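Entry: Two-component system response regulator YesN
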Amino acid sequence: MYKVLIVDDEVFVRKGLIRILSECSPQFEICGEAENGEQALTLIEQLNPELVIADIRMPVLDGLGLIKKVKTELVQEPIFIILSGYADFSYAQQAFRYNVSDYILKPVDEQELTVALGKIAHMLNKKQLLSITREKPLVETVIESLLQTQPDDQVMGRIAYALELPLTSSYTYLIAEMQDQLPAGEVDYLPALKNSLLRYFRQEAQTLLLHVRTNNQYGMILPGQWVDEPHPSPWGGYRTMLDTLERELGTSIALFVGRKVSHLNQIVASGASAEQCLQYRFAAGFEGIYMADELLELPLYYFDIDEGLHSKLIYEVEANDNKGYSSTVDAIFTMFQERHFAPGAVTNTIRRSMIAIINIIRQLEGDENELQWMTELLNWPLKYRNLKQLKQVFQQFIAEAAEYIAEKRGGKSEGNIEKIKKYIDGHYRENIYLKGIAADFDMNPVYLGQLFRKTYGVYFNEYLLTLRIEEAKRLLRQTKKRMYEIAELVGFQNADYFATQFEKLENMTPTDYRNMMIGQ
């Protein structure tokens, strides 16, 4: 990665630039900040950044003065990008006389800066690549450059010469992901991984094209000439390799294997296909080996689980039904695999279930932070990198939440349902509704609705309507009240709606019913 120094007297501008670089330019890392040119001059000498992004107008020493002093007083030769809130061509002319890389007006356009950074990264990559020697190859720079662009023939020739590899041969980029259930970077697997791979390929004297990626991943360009013998299945050789690595490194590993290419300068395409394989980490049947040739034709699923399955899980958690929620979790995770859920869709499903459960806990005046597995599940993408690991932590959270909810509610759910029915029987003439009753009894409305149906074999709304219509029939038989009066007396706010619901249930209008009763 290349070091960047940010120089601007406005702190919000500095923070905005830091955000853009962290999100859009992974080849650059911020090494420091300065609010004027004098501070920047000291930091450039200390930190030796490859790139300086500086405002043109600053107190003490402005951007152009800083560039002049760097060029005349320091041995460092960073690249400069100048920012200015002044659309003054004379400033631009003066800046370019100092050979600045780019001149960008404030407010900074994110896309414009990203394009400029891309050009600078390419220039720095090429500069380093052309300095490669056999004695000291810059392996990380080589790999990252090959994965981002196709270098020209001059650079490719130097790379192949330095690494003692043929230009025209089969190459594959693969990603080895350490699935150790630890935060990324907590264990440095690079030395052990390097030694294990060199022994496995029997290439101890050869340079290994291995580099460190984010999220506990290591990338490797694998020359085809290192593969000893063909295997009956496309992934057979990788299975042996995976078993060896897991045994020697003492942790679970997944391999994401890109498509094979026929020239070293095409490794960018193999790398892109390996990246796509990461999206299939939750698909079924691949047992730790994800190959682009098998996966990339399969459609990914980007949506949520079925509403019915989600509601069923929440109901079973509220009911503290261990067997029920365990079975539903199994069904959800089977769906993740069989439908090839993308990681984002899995995340959304987990988050949706957590939010629903947190809302229940808060309704009961509980605190979700009292759950030991709460934080663990919130941060699962940082530690749990396969479906088995995620399922284990999700099950732990669900079980703990179910027990917590039952404890907060005091185990009164089944007893409360009888009280709720009696409440409905006594208040059906009023403007009552499921959500309001659930709040009065400290229950989730979805859970209450499903519990009511499970207990009495009828939905809440159907039961309430039946009570109201039966009372309306009594009033139609025994009184001469008008329709709108009867509608209001039995809990309907609108006489037309009352008539519609009456006819739906009795297959006749209220007037027809009254006339029929008078005739009898």
